[in-house]
């Protein structure tokens, strides 16, 4: 090769080398330029930055495709992965390139930072546990100790975002104590103050940030962030004027577009606090107009809603602006809180037409939801207490309504008694109480109708007056009735008996000298025969109609009275105690030593001493475990535990007590008692006839849960599911027992095996083993149902038993635990054959 060719080759190689060097140089410059550009208002890189990141990625890709090894390739992988990460829309691609760097160049100086970036990407892609695990392993590797402060700083930031302030404090303290001369040491000041702010410890946070401002070597951007948090702490501490001054100074210094909305929002909040609402709303409008669809504009809508509700009480406008927060920027940390407050305001909005008598459920739902919303969402405990008091207050009104109804019923009953006394006897007017008004009308003249109508009107006026007036009216009729002609009297049927009428006419006849036959015909004309019925006159119909109306009215009153009694009883036993417990809880959380707290406790102990809410509030105020349970249910639970313990020491009383508890109104008690009795008779006394009804009661319960699951392993609802090879002892001396079908039970017992209780016990859930009774009786039970160990020993059996299975134990060679006499069945003919 000629010298000239060699020179040309060298020049070409140097050109290629220079080209590669220029490529890496350009990639670095593109990345650096993109990093220097400010983020947009939503925290993302602007269009120029994205373009420069893309150019850097292309330059790095060109180097990677040309060379397979070398320092430039390592840097190209690292620079490409960071460009993809900061570009904002290529997180998974960035993760792949960081992992390629770790795999291909495990000893590269860029590997430690690659691990930290991978952890950040895992966190951003909803894998927080994997990110934390990766960094924990990173911190345990002494090879990367130089980068441990950076990893600790990232972990502290993760913890603050998760509201785990104790863990964040731990990581920050490690940076401050173990790495005092690092860049992260200075940055830890910022997170240290931010951590206190997130914990709502504003005094310590303000102190930490002021101390950071005086420290040397801290970047300008971090100091600006610290100044912003100083303003936030001043605002939270009620120092609105200082916060406004801080915000105005920060507006002049801050030039980053993504931070300006937050600074202006701080200014607007301070102005709202100072009452300068016009300027504050101007700032809000500026933010929402110039920085739309950003976290800053979402915050502006949130605090505008706060102003509408807490300052003006304008619920519709507050709800409108709360709902705008999520639509403006769904990733805002205030979005969820705003949504909860919008829903809560829907619950607390005033409602009309609520009446605890006609709609108790709607009345309680509204006030309970409103109180919960005020307490837990809107942070207005006094308003919550006011709603609980509104729930309690209708009780007196209900009592007044009940007493008024009872008075009206009593008045109606008195009127009814007086009216019924005016009606003719049933033997004179054969009319029943239900069909009185269906009787035929009397054939009367127009004159009679007019006079009777006037009389009926007078009586109607008397009816609606007091019973005394009505009685006076009746007495007047009785005094004057003898002076009225019989044919014209309206009350002849009720005031003059048949005997008296006949006697009077007979005296008149004697005076006139009339014969007896004429007297008979006269009596026939004047008085109806006893065998016939007299139709009611119109006055009687009026009285009957009024009686019927009063009886219907009383029926309505009684129905309403019964409903009122139920509601008042519920107020006494449940509603008022619950509301007082809720108010007592609020007072206790606010100030345990407050007089209101002591007053409400004393009132509950005086008026509702045995109520579960009284006991719960007492436990709360004395720092005891709070348990809302009916005292009667609690007593039955204690009895249940006692019977479980006594079933071996005093079985008679324990079984009788458990039998009573099978009728308990409490589902859990009833279920446990039935299950325990079923297990006792099925496995410990081996009497399936006695066990069946209890186990069947367990299976018939719709919500038996684990009890039913375990019971079905050995009982299907009708018969036992027999497993294993354990024979059953028949405690009787007869050599042959025949059941009602003629089957030899002793012969058939050879084919009958019993469930293995030890095997079943091992499969029981821990929550049910306490009810099984097996732990204390397992050994004796297994012995009772197992074959004797020594089969060579001579058995004491009668000749008739020689045909039986040799392995069947008898009372002599394998005694069973003694049963109470009343529990031993007299006959075994009823033993079920499986």
The gist of it:
The protein has 834 residues and is mainly α. 68% of the residues lie in helices and 0% in strands.
Q: What low-confidence regions span 5 or more consecutive residues with pLDDT below 50?
A: 13-19, 428-534, 723-758, 767-834
CATH topology of the domain at 18-238: Serine Threonine Protein Phosphatase 5, Tetratricopeptide repeat
Helix proportion range: 55-70%
Number of DSSP E strands? 0
| Overall pLDDT metric | 75
Name of the CATH superfamily of the domain at 18-238: Tetratricopeptide repeat domain
Radius of gyration: 48 Å
CATH architecture classification of the domain at 18-238:
Alpha Horseshoe
Proportion of residues in β-strands: under 5%
What characteristic shape results from the CA principal axes? extended
Helix/strand/pairing category: mainly alpha
What's the CATH C level of the domain at 18-238? Answer: Mainly Alpha
TPR repeats: 186-219
Signal peptide: 1-18
Pfam families: TPR_16 (PF13432), TPR_6 (PF13174)
Keywords: Coiled coil, Signal, TPR repeat
Provide the fold topology.
Blueprint: H1 3-36, H2 47-66, H3 71-87, H4 91-104, H5 111-124, H6 128-139, H7 148-161, H8 165-178, H9 183-198, H10 202-214, H11 220-236, H12 240-253, H13 260-274, H14 277-290, H15 295-311, H16 315-328, H17 335-348, H18 360-377, H19 381-392, H20 394-422, H21 446-463, H22 467-480, H23 492-495, H24 498-512, H25 516-526, H26 538-590, H27 595-607, H28 612-621, H29 631-649, H30 651-661, H31 667-684, H32 688-700, H33 706-711, H34 745-748, H35 757-763, H36 766-772, H37 774-785
Helix pairs in contact: 1-2, 1-3, 2-3, 3-4, 4-5, 5-6, 6-7, 7-8, 7-9, 8-9, 9-10, 9-11, 10-11, 11-12, 11-13, 12-13, 13-14, 13-15, 14-15, 15-16, 16-17, 17-18, 18-19, 19-26, 20-22, 20-26, 21-26, 24-25, 26-27, 26-28, 29-30, 29-31, 30-31, 31-32
Biased composition (Basic and acidic residues): 505-526, 824-834
InterPro entries: TPR-like_helical_dom_sf (IPR011990), TPR_rpt (IPR019734)
Keywords: Coiled coil, Signal, TPR repeat
């Amino acid at each position: 090769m000629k010298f000239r060719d060699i020179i040309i080759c060298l020049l070409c190689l140097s050109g290629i080398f220079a080209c590669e060097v220029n490529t890496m140089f350009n990639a670095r410059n593109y990345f650096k330029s993109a990093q220097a550009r400010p983020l947009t208002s939503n925290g993302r890189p602007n269009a120029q930055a994205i373009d420069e990141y893309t150019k850097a990625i292309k330059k790095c890709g060109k180097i990677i495709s040309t060379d397979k090894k070398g320092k430039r390739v390592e840097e190209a992988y690292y620079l490409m992965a960071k460009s993809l990460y900061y570009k904002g829309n290529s997180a998974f691609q960035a993760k792949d390139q960081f992992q390629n760097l770790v795999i291909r160049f495990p000893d590269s100086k860029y590997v430690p930072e690659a691990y930290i970036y991978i952890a950040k990407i895992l966190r951003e892609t909803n894998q927080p546990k994997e990110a934390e695990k990766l960094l924990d392993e990173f911190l345990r590797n002494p090879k990367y100790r130089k980068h441990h402060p950076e990893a600790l700083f990232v972990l502290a930031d993760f913890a603050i975002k998760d509201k785990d302030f104790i863990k964040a404090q731990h990581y920050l303290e490690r940076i401050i104590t173990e790495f005092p001369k690092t860049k992260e040491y200075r940055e830890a000041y910022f997170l240290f103050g931010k951590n206190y702010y997130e914990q709502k410890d504003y005094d310590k946070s303000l102190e930490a940030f002021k101390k950071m401002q005086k420290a040397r070597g801290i970047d300008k951007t971090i100091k600006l962030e610290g100044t912003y948090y100083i303003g936030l702490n001043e605002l939270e501490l009620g120092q609105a004027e200082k916060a406004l001054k801080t915000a105005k100074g920060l507006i002049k210094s801050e030039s980053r577009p993504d931070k300006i909305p937050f600074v202006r929002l701080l200014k607007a909040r301070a102005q709202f606090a100072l009452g300068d609402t016009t300027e504050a709303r101007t700032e809000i409008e500026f933010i929402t107009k110039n920085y739309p669809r950003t976290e800053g504009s979402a915050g502006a809508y949130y605090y505008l809603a706060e102003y509408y509700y807490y300052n003006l009480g304008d619920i519709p406008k507050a709800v409108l602006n709360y709902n705008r927060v999520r639509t403006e920027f769904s990733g805002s940390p205030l979005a969820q809180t705003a949504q909860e407050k919008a829903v809560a305001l829907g619950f607390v909005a005033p409602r009309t037409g609520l009446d605890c008598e006609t709609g108790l459920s709607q009345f309680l739902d509204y006030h309970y939801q409103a109180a919960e919303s005020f307490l837990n969402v809107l942070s207005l405990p006094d308003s919550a207490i006011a709603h609980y008091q509104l729930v309690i207050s209708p009780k007196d009104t209900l009592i007044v309504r009940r007493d008024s109804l009872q008075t009206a019923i009593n008045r109606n009953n008195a009127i009814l008694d007086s009216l019924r006394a005016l009606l003719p006897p049933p033997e004179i007017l054969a009319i029943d109480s239900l069909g009185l008004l269906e009787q035929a009308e009397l054939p009367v003249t127009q004159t009679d109708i007019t006079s009777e109508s006037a009389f009926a009107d007078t009586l109607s006026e008397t009816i609606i007056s007091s019973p005394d007036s009505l009685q006076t009216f009746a007495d007047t009729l009785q005094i004057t009735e003898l002076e009225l002609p019989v044919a014209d009297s309206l009350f002849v049927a009720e005031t003059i008996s048949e005997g008296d009428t006949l006697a009077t006419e007979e005296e008149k006849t004697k005076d006139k000298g009339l014969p007896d036959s004429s007297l008979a015909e006269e009596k026939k004309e004047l008085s109806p025969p006893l065998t016939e019925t007299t139709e009611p006159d119109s006055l009687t119909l009026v009285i009957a109609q009024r009686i019927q109306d009063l009886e219907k009215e009383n029926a309505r009153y009684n129905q309403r009275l019964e409903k009122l009694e139920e509601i008042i009883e519920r107020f006494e036993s449940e509603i008022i105690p619950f509301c007082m417990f809720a108010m007592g809880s609020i007072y206790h959380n606010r100030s345990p030593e407050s007089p209101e707290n002591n007053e409400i406790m004393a009132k509950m102990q005086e008026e509702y001493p045995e109520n579960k809410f009284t006991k719960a509030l007492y436990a709360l105020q004395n720092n005891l475990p709070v348990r809302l349970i009916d005292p009667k249910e609690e007593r039955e639970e204690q009895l249940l535990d006692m019977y479980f313990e006594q079933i071996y020491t005093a079985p008679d009383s324990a079984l009788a007590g458990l039998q009573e508890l099978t009728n308990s109104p409490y589902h859990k008690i009833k279920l446990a008692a039935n299950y325990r009795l079923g297990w006792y008779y099925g496995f410990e006394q081996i009497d399936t006839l006695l066990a069946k009804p209890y186990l069947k009661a367990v299976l018939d319960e719709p919500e038996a849960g684990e009890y039913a699951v375990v019971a079905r392993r050995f009982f299907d609802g009708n018969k036992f599911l027999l497993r294993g090879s354990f024979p059953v002892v028949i405690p009787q001396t007869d050599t042959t027992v025949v059941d009602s079908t003629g089957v030899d039970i002793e012969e058939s017992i050879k084919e009958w095996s019993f469930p293995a209780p030890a095997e079943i016990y091992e499969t029981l859930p821990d929550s049910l083993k306490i009810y099984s009774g097996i732990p204390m009786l397992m050994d004796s039970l297994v012995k009772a149902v197992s074959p004797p160990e020594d089969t060579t020993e001579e058995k004491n059996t009668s000749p008739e038993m020689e045909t039986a299975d040799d392995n069947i134990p008898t009372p002599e060679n394998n005694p069973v635990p003694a049963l109470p006499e009343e529990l031993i069945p007299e006959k075994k003919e009823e033993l079920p054959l499986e």
